[in-house]
Amino acid sequence: MSTPVRLRPLEPADWPLVLELNAAEVPRVAPMDQDRAEWIRALSDRFDVIEVDGEFAGSVVTLRPGTAYDSKNYRWFSERYGERFYYLDRVAVASGFRRRGVAAAVYDELEAVAAAYDRMTLEVNVIPRNEPSLTFHSGRGYVEVGQLGDDSYRVSLMAKELAQG
User: What CATH number was assigned to the domain covering residues 5-120?
Assistant: First the structure.
């Protein structure tokens, strides 16, 4: 299915929708209040709204290497890959837009950006297990390169090699 998907920079009027969707997606994404969101936005490469036919369909946040981001997952990738990774911090697609190719279109655009960094990295919950996300990422060629967490909360650290050559 070809759904017209557009990524655009977040605008002030988008905050309520972004924060509401993020809250609804916890624990699949990390909690984020307005202050935290604004701090992450200041560090991010992209803090975009996902639109489908002009409607709010979700949001996505990515970071380049070398930021002061305090995420354990981001730091793990930074220690492992140095300057050669592009980090997908969070992506949330509103329930009414799922299973329509929206995430695939978002990833197509982000992976094109990430290619300059050799790989795109992210994490997916394994405790509690996020089977749809694990299946989606595996299908796109992401592989587990490590895990962080404990018996109550654990993530699979995943990477997709994008280097040309």
Answer: 3.40.630.30
Residue 89 contacts residue 155 (beta carbons within 8 Å): no
Q: What is the pTM of this model?
A: 0.94
DSSP symbol at 116? G
Which tokens go with 102?
């929206």
CA dihedral 10, 162, 70, 62 (to 10 degrees): 0
Sign of CA dihedral 125, 128, 134, 137: negative
In the chain, the amino acid numbered 131 is: E
Q: What is the pLDDT of residues 40-56, one digit of tens each?
A: 999 999 999 999 999 99
| Burial tier of 115 (Cβ tally within 10 Å: 0-12, 13-18, 19+) | middle
Domain boundaries, the chain: 5-120
